[in-house]
Amino acid sequence: CLSVCVFVCMFVHTHLPRCRCYPVLLGDPRVPLGLNKGAAHRACSALRCTSCDFKVCMFDNMAWDDSCDYLFLRNNVPDFEKLQQKLSPEPGARAYACQCTWRSVRALAGVRPDELKWVCGRH
């Protein structure tokens, strides 16, 4: 009986629906990360890019250098050691990047589908 109960719990647990943020938000370090459901604004902590199919990396109190480009990200994401070459300390900013796109965010902002191919990868 115990093995059946464990199997059922594991089966049910792995098949529970997971939630997505709505709307999907980006934010500076003062904005808490997590699941956004509207009322309490949270920056999505599970961003995924539909263009390169990579998880979006986030770095608090950092901003991307103007010389950052697609090829640099393609070769270095998600290795923070290598990414530091194009990141500069900036209090109040959060740097986001996947392998094809990057943004420095200084305030709460929504993800516009015409600009970014980032979606909530579920929580």
Q: What can you tell me about this protein's structure?
A:
The protein has helices at 2-14, 70-76, 80-83, and strands at residues 25-26, 33-34, 43-44, 47-49, 57-64, 87-97, 102-105, 109-110, 118-120. By secondary structure, the protein is of the alpha+beta class. The strands form four sheets. It has a three-stranded antiparallel beta sheet, with no helix packed on it. The protein has a two-stranded antiparallel ribbon with strand order 1-8. The chain is globular.
Rg measurement, Å: 17 Å
Q: Spans of 5+ residues with little confidence (pLDDT < 50)?
A: 1-13
Helix content: 10-25%
Beta strand % = 25-35%
**Major sheet:** 3 strands, antiparallel
Write down how many β-strands occur, each being a DSSP E stretch of 2 or more residues. 9
Mean pLDDT: 89
In the sheet with the most strands, the strands line up as 5-6-7
Please tell me what the overall shape is: globular
- CA-to-CA gap between the ends? 32 Å
Structural class: alpha+beta
| Helix/strand order, N-terminal first | HEEEEEHHEEEE
> How many helix segments?
3
